[in-house]
Amino acid sequence: MGEVKKEEEVAIEEGMPAGEVEAPSLDELSAKVEELEEERDALKDRLLRLQAEFENYRKRVQKEMEEFREQAHGAVICDILYILDNMERALEAAEKGADRESLLQGMRLIHKQFKEVLKRFGVEEIEALYAKFDPNLHQAVMQVNGEEEEKDQTVVQEVEKGYLLKGRLLRPSKVVVCRYRPPEDAREQEEQV
Predict the structure, then answer these.
(1) One domain, residues 21 and 80
(2) Pair 150, 185: CB distance under 8 Å
(3) Domain end call among 92, 121, 150
(4) Nearest-CA neighbor of 77 among 126, 85, 111?
(5) Average pLDDT over residues 155-161
(6) What percentage of the chain has pLDDT greater than the value 70?
(7) Which element (helix H / strand E) includes 123?
(8) DSSP letters spanning 159-187
(9) What is the mean pLDDT of the segment spanning 39-46?
(10) Under a CB-based contact definition with an 8 Å cutoff, are residues 176 and 183 in contact?
(11) pLDDT in the model for residue 147
(12) Which residues is 142 bridged to in the sheet?
């Protein structure tokens, strides 16, 4: 009943008498249905093509990322192999009875070479010793009592070095932290007050 009123209102607005609303012919309706079906089929086909293109794009990007990772790993591994070569030479020299001082000097050079490789790849050491404890960079493994207030929450020993990779935490420093404890007689005076 509501639709009839709407048709009558439309007819009146268009200047036609209320009873003379023209209904579309069967041919017009079937042409309209056919046109809509073609449009639907075209949109469905387009959607399927877009989905296929997106899936291909996703696979291509994933493959490129894997190739990039492999190349990056290859560069790091190649640099590490040079260090391994030097370590093997040092071991060979030690087995042949090289003197202690030359072995120590060789190990220092290998250590320096290793640190340079890490630096080239954006790895930097966290300076922890005697710094204020920072839970974002340090992991406290132990606390020791200290008597100097200015050393409270200060790292007094580095158990394991921490590293950043291009400014982001790679591994926290494992540290021993000083905790200020006032001397016994000072605490007793505070308690008496």
Answers:
(1) yes
(2) no
(3) 121
(4) 85
(5) 95
(6) 83
(7) strand 123-125
(8) EE--EEETTEEEEPEEEEEEEE---HHHH
(9) 96
(10) no
(11) 81
(12) 176
